[in-house]
Each structure stands twice: as structure tokens, then as C-alpha cells.
Design goal:
Blueprint (H helix, E strand, L loop, with lengths): L9 H7 L6 E4 L3 E5 L9 E5 L11 H18 L4 E4 L15 E5 L18 H12 L3
The structure holds guanosine-5'-monophosphate and zinc ion (ZN).
Organism: Chaetomium strumarium
Keywords: Hydrolase, Magnesium, Nucleotide-binding
Protein name: Adenosine 5'-monophosphoramidase HNT1
Length: 138
Amino acid sequence: MATSKMASCIFCKIIQGEIPCFKLFESDKTLAFLDINPLSKGHALVIPKFHGEKLTDIPDDYLTDILPIAKKLVVATGAKEYNILQNNGRGAHQEVGHVHFHMIPKPNEQEGLGIGWPQQKTDMDKLKAYFEEIKSKV
Ligand code: 5GP
Ligand code: ZN
């Protein structure tokens, strides 16, 4: 199994079977299971079997395995509206330091993910200047 383990990591322990989970799907590179404190019925996590804290720490071949599995969870739960969420860093609401993608059904206003969307005012000149700065680095 292509697993890189970190001894203190709770999700690495789940991958190794040292901590139980309600496993929904598994491939050689990915594990999907129910979130223990769901925001809604069907809230699940999809994680790479590779320890890394943030998206940029995970090899591409692990990342490409993840979205098709999140899609399977959407189909299996029958969720009609849902969010795919991946937090990076404490300030961005990450609590577990092993990359994970949430699949969170949004059945109604009260359940599922609630988010703020604090849009900032900008103008085309500022937007274009930033675009010029970043595009060559992508
Ligand atoms: P984060 O805030 O890091 O994006 O989300 C971490 C998620 O992992 C939370 O939704 C939390 O409920 C879930 N979680 C934390 N520990 C465990 C665990 O031991 N088992 C399972 N199944 N989920 C967990
Ligand atoms: Zn880990």
C-alpha cells in the first residue's frame, strides 16, 4: 500500500486501521469515510493515503484520485446540493493536519455548510495588474 504514515496523525491512524471509521470507499491511494461530527447527513471525508498537511504537500497522482471518489459519494448519498471543501491552515479552519476533502450535503438552509462570502471591491486595473503578476508563475 502506498502509504506515508505520520505517527501522531489521527487520519494516518485511520488509514492504518488503528482507529476505526465508517469506511465508504477505498482505493490504493485514497480513503473515504463518514465525518464523526457531521454538518449534515452524509457528510464524508476523502483523504489521500499520503501524509501531508496542505494541498501543496500532496503528490499530484494522489490528488487526481480524490475528486472521482468525492463524486461517488455525492451519487451514493443522493445529495442534490452539496459543497466540496478543503481547508488549508488553522486560519482557514483546518483542524486535522492531514489533507482531507469534505463532501457536505446541503439539504436545507439550516444543515450543511454555512459560509460567509465577504466580497471585496476592486477595479479592472488592479485586477489586471495582479493577473499579470501571477499568470507567469502558474
Ligand atoms: P477540518 O476543520 O480540519 O477541515 O475538518 C476536520 C474534520 O475531521 C471535522 O469535520 C471533524 O469532525 C473530522 N474528524 C476529526 N476527527 C475525526 C475522527 O477521528 N474520525 C472521523 N471520522 N472524523 C473526524
Ligand atoms: Zn496523516
